[in-house]
Amino acid sequence: MKTILPIFVFLLILASCSFNNEEGDIIASVYDKNLYAEDVVGIVPEGANPIDSVKIVKDFVNQWVKKQVVLHKALNNDYILASESKEMERKVEDYKNTLIIYQYQRHLVDQKLDTVVSYQEIEDYYNNHTKEFTLKGDIVQVAYVKFNNDFKNIKPVRKLFKDYNPDNLSKIKKIAEGKSANYFLDDETWILFSDLKKEIPIKTYNKNLFFKNNKYIELKDSLYTYMLRINNYKIEDSVSPLAFEYDNIRSLIINIRKMELIDKMEEDVFKEAQEQGAIKIVD
Question: Considering the entire predicted model, what is its pTM?
Answer without folding.
Answer: 0.70
